[in-house]
Amino acid sequence: MLISTVPAANSAEPLIGVYGENSMQHVLDFEKWLGRKVDVILCTVDFHKWENYRYADWLSQTVYGARGDRRLVYDVPIIIQDTSYAEAKTGSYDEHWKCLAESILSNNAGEYEIVIRPSHEMNGEWFAWGVGGSKQAMIPDFIASWQRFHGVFRGVKGGERFRFSFSTSEGASDPRPMWPGDEYVDIVGHDVYWKPKAMGGEGWEEGDAKLAWDKRVNDGYNEWGVGGMLKFAQQKGKPFQIDEWGTWGPDSAVFVQGMAEFLKANNVRSHTYWNSNSGYPGELTQREKEWPAPTKAFKAAFGAVAKP
Prior knowledge:
The chain is α/β, with parallel strands linked by helices. The chain is about 30% helix and about 15% strand. The protein has a single domain, classed as TIM Barrel, CATH 3.20.20. Strand 4, helix 6 and strand 5 form a beta-alpha-beta unit. The chain is globular.
């Protein structure tokens, strides 16, 4: 059995979460490195086959059965590979959604809120469920599908526990026209990743981490960066959270510090760090020597508080 011996999460701060590649051991490794427990664990539901999508047992029991009081946040695509919103909005996938909703509830006993991220990063076009970029003609079907999905999840016994995060991404189309309606969203979330050119691959920014952070906060890139989406959440009267974030490279300490200051200054509900090299090379637990400044900054900002 996997047991954590690190202190509980700090009080009076935003909830802290981690993505650890659907591995409890990775979560425990992150906690040991950070010196504290996390509040939430981000996990991803399969989007290749409905038979895998329908049940949360593997994630909730096999992978995270030893999570204790850490709560799972579920990435749940409204549609999966080779399906469509045009069909989803008509009810074609209701039974798949209903089965998954019941499975999630059966694996999370209690009365606490369960956060769902339907079709996260929908304003991009890199996922099967995205409606950004060249797929924007699908937005009306996406909205209708979200509304139906919401009804199915809320309609099962215990469904009032679900909380739905409108989880957008930077570096993509304006997500605001994709809003499914105030009554269908509980939380506004946003994904933020520092991507300097030096990282290669998808890197596109110049190597000034402070400038990069300032632009995100002050609409320097567009009006739907982290600052813009915070304002959008405030206009909607919804809590705001950072659903995913990651940093890269030895010179990114100021980006970490900027995030920490933003979270505390704006009463952000939670933040989840992408401690993985899958999809984005943001793993910190193995980079103490390689990235001393940002790893130190992260621990200082989010690690265990020293007792007086």
